Amino acid sequence: MDFDFSWLLLGLPIAFVLGWLASRLDLRQLRLENRQAPKAYFRGLNYLLNEQQDQAIDAFIEAVQNDPDTQELHFALGNLFRRRGEYQRAVRVHEHLLSRGDLSRADRERAQHALARDFLSAGLLDRAEAALQKLEGTAYENEARLALLAIYERSREWAQAEAVAQKLDAAGQASYATRRAHHLCEQAQELSSQGAVDAALGLLRQAAELAPEAPRPAIDLAALQLRAGDAAAAFETLRRLSEVAPLALPLYAAQLQQAAQGAQRVAEAQGLLRARYAQAPSIDVLEALMALGASPSQAEDGAAAAAAPAGAGDNPRDGYLQHLRHQPSSLVAASRWLSRERFTDDAQTHAPVQKALDQAARPLLRYRCAACGFEAHQYFWHCPGCQAWDSYPPRRVEEL
């Protein structure tokens, strides 16, 4: 039987046409799918720019469903969940990324960092700590260390905080010497409360060497020396501090006064306190001077002694009057001067007037954080409001 070549000639064009149609259909389907994903993506971006986060999330979810292998969409979706406070959904997105075997190293580190931020935002500090520790040696190492430092300081784990701050210090991007000194002081405070005074003294000396211009190590060291009965060592510690940190003298003026009396160095302490008071009048420095039996100004003492009758300068309230000459608006000095007055003609009205003045002056005795404005009667080295270090000026609200 002979083969009819006419069928072959007729079938080749038909096969070519069918193949071409099939390829066009596949190409059209591919283009349609590719159009759908970008449209959903750009729609999500548009919603995001218009701060319509709910609609943006829906659009990104649609884009992820159309193209589940797109990492950027997953990252965008996870960040949106975190910003909306849906931390569990953000965690699931980033954990899904980490479970993928085809993820590049850079994207895996990025997903690990995003997961740690999810845990931090959710307040899951233990899980955040574990996630941040996995970023050691990555491009996010420095950010992870800063976050770990904040966690340890917030949870008062001072030994771990000092270890992380030491790594940051060694990296050379910034100096953490003063912050490390604070960590050592916190550890010393805990040891001192447990009765381990010698270990506490060792940590405080280490902190003073680490940050010689920071006032806290010397102040805490002098306090322990006073407790141990070594007033001479305490006075010498505070005297050296007054040379490198004179602005902080109001914080340790009372300690300086106690150490001077115990070490029999009253005249030297009076000179230090008078010099600081002349530069910046302070109620704390004033009261330390008055406790040492002196008034703020030596020159004023001589003039007053020449003009006043015998015994007129012996009243300790005269110091408050001199302070009012320097600070006429000082309600604290006026209230404390009035509290030492003795009224014989109208004694019954003294108590309510004094009470009203004391209540009005009490807010002026607070310290105020320069970073967040948090006020407290106690001086804080670490602000409980914003967690900043050394953010409180060493002067009370009235003196700012």
Automatic annotation (TrEMBL):
- Subcellular localization: Cell inner membrane
Alphabetized SUPFAM superfamilies for the sequence: TPR-like (SSF48452)
Q: Which Pfam families match?
A: Zn_ribbon_LapB
Report the residue ranges that make up the LapB rubredoxin metal binding domain in this protein. 367-391
So which domain of life are we looking at? Bacteria
The biological processes this protein is annotated with in GO are: lipopolysaccharide metabolic process; regulation of lipid biosynthetic process
Which parts are the TPR repeats? 37-70
The residues exposed to the Cytoplasmic compartment are 24-400
Keyword Cell inner membrane recorded: yes
Q: Does the keyword Kinase apply?
A: no
Q: Show the GO MF annotations.
A: iron ion binding
Positions of Fe cation binding: C369, C372, C383, C386
This protein's major location comes to: membrane
Query: Which family, according to UniProt?
Result: Belongs to the LapB family.
Its annotated function is as follows: Modulates cellular lipopolysaccharide (LPS) levels by regulating LpxC, which is involved in lipid A biosynthesis. May act by modulating the proteolytic activity of FtsH towards LpxC. May also coordinate assembly of proteins involved in LPS synthesis at the plasma membrane.
State what protein this is by name.
Lipopolysaccharide assembly protein B
